[in-house]
Amino acid sequence: MQPTQPRLHLGNIEGALRNWVRLQDEFEIFCFIADWHALTSMAHEPHLIKHNTREITKDYIAGGIDLKRSIIFAQSDVKEHAELHLLFSMVTPLGWLERVPTYKEKKEAMGSEERESYGFLGYPVLQAADILMYKPHGVPVGKDQAPHLELSREIARRFNNLYGEVFPEFENVIGDIPLLLGTDGRKMSKSYDNAIYLSDTEDETAAKINSAFTTPTKIKKTDPGIPETCAVCNLLRVYSPNWETQWEEDRQGIRGCMQNKRELIECVNENLRPMRERRAHISDADVEDALKKGAERAREVAAATMVDVRAAMGMS
Length: 316
Ligand code: ADP
Known about the structure:
The chain has 316 residues and is mostly helical. The chain has helices spanning 10-23, 35-42, 47-62, 80-89, 94-98, 101-109, 118-132, 146-163, 202-210, 231-239, 243-252, 257-280, 284-312; strands at 30-33, 71-74, 138-140, 171-173.
């Protein structure tokens, strides 16, 4: 996750973090915070990134990452990522990067003052280095990240073809959670000011849900709803065990948007309560300690991979 904000939202938690927590029962997992990546949109305010990284580490721990079994580290603490990024950038055709769907989307959304940088175009190459450095068995992400993983795979194949088998194939580990919608009905994202955060209070969560987008043509309770495009119904699907009945009643005009919102507020707050309580007890010293130990373990693996990479290229 990129530390462009000091907090994770429900989409990050359900689309990614929950999956990581589940996977740590079976695998050694490497959870990282992409602080160099955050510079693609925050080059003018790098001083905020360190603070954000620490706050997100708290969210990871509160969300259930168990530091006895798993590691959390910051990308910039493992300089090998920069070396591998450079080497990959020499074997990645420019056309591959220009075709990445999120590149086109984000480029169109950019303001005129926010000029596109070389690093912005190349960030999937850095992401490939982040992933392949650990020769992973699987990479757990939300559905929106699938094109980036495909590009990482192509870069690995190209590298292996040129220099010999260094990087094994990996799997996409994508949970069956739908893309979460934000309060305005678009994808929930920290870039859109439409997100509900783990660090929000229960009252803030309620206020956001109360103002959320529903079916625009459902004005009275008896008007039929379209749950597929309603942000409140989208979240009920993830958080409410009764979502199927709630959706049907919404569709048939048996229930109104206010009832949906009331029930969603209860489910979300109840679901987040244990994490929010845990978060309140994590100290800055706990975070420093976690990041330091995480970086030590990550550097061990990264150093070994770079020995293989340099040997394969005849550049030891
Ligand atoms: P954002 O879009 O808020 O900037 P990131 O791009 O940093 O989020 O994504 C971090 C992780 O969270 C990724 O694995 C991504 O797939 C997942 N994710 C982000 N937004 C959502 C969402 N709305 N629904 C499900 N998963 C999401």
